[in-house]
């Protein structure tokens, strides 16, 4: 494999050799290359691209946060305005991976990270995500960490990320740049359900790159949080995670956003739970009913059936914890952005 490095003045959507893969932090791609899962003919080093729009956090006039796709996870987690206005975003970043990885991993790359399914990562097993039509080793295997929502007869691999859930709950959008120019897309449309083609994971064209993430920041999103249940207290992927943002009128739900991780093949918005809660008094009973509703369509296997109850309980806990938060946080902001 020959390295392919862009000149620092080359646009991020410049031409690349056939079979090339983009690399930024490398925390996912390099790992998969070592395992033999990824075999690019060349690497396009995005870190050498000097375009300022690819880095940093900007507050737009409408209050939206625009975050360059090469911004590191640690940089976003340390941002004082994000911490004040979108706490669930910061929490999703702080609970991910390790400090060393957060210092290297880019937010754009984090959105595109590939599954941690052991049958995908071990090339001795058949995997429809690696090679369409080859079969799925997980179907008759150990499925403790696999998905129970959004699955198909071809794939039950769970999406591993955390940040995507928090962004999805906010109806985030992404900027995408390719040889045809720049376009915007809702984050909810980026990841594709496996269906019969689990090898096609996103809606990006081959020449396209995520260049920025746009996070809306309504005032009520200060009442938000991110909860994660895992087997270890650090450097472990979620068995179940929940991003929750809540707007209350007294004790009644005016607006609620819920997104789930660890349980689905893509970042998963819990629309049935949101619909059940709309206009209702947020009691313990209502919160638990919402959790159950979120998993009504779950397809479980003996090893991962526990995720249905764990996920329902985590949603209830997130809702009740969000209810206990103040409607607005008044953390001081000492940073001035240029």
From TrEMBL:
<feature type="domain" description="FAD-binding PCMH-type">
    <location>
        <begin position="1"/>
        <end position="220"/>
    </location>
</feature>
<dbReference type="InterPro" id="IPR002346">
    <property type="entry name" value="Mopterin_DH_FAD-bd"/>
</dbReference>
<dbReference type="InterPro" id="IPR036318">
    <property type="entry name" value="FAD-bd_PCMH-like_sf"/>
</dbReference>
<dbReference type="InterPro" id="IPR016169">
    <property type="entry name" value="FAD-bd_PCMH_sub2"/>
</dbReference>
<dbReference type="InterPro" id="IPR036683">
    <property type="entry name" value="CO_DH_flav_C_dom_sf"/>
</dbReference>
<dbReference type="InterPro" id="IPR016167">
    <property type="entry name" value="FAD-bd_PCMH_sub1"/>
</dbReference>
<protein>
    <submittedName>
        <fullName>Molybdopterin dehydrogenase FAD-binding protein</fullName>
    </submittedName>
</protein>
<dbReference type="GO" id="GO:0071949">
    <property type="term" value="F:FAD binding"/>
</dbReference>
<feature type="region of interest" description="Disordered">
    <location>
        <begin position="1"/>
        <end position="23"/>
    </location>
</feature>
<keyword id="KW-0614">Plasmid</keyword>
<keyword id="KW-0285">Flavoprotein</keyword>
<dbReference type="GO" id="GO:0016491">
    <property type="term" value="F:oxidoreductase activity"/>
</dbReference>
<dbReference type="Pfam" id="PF03450">
    <property type="entry name" value="CO_deh_flav_C"/>
</dbReference>
<dbReference type="InterPro" id="IPR016166">
    <property type="entry name" value="FAD-bd_PCMH"/>
</dbReference>
<dbReference type="InterPro" id="IPR005107">
    <property type="entry name" value="CO_DH_flav_C"/>
</dbReference>
<dbReference type="InterPro" id="IPR051312">
    <property type="entry name" value="Diverse_Substr_Oxidored"/>
</dbReference>
<dbReference type="Pfam" id="PF00941">
    <property type="entry name" value="FAD_binding_5"/>
</dbReference>
<keyword id="KW-0274">FAD</keyword>
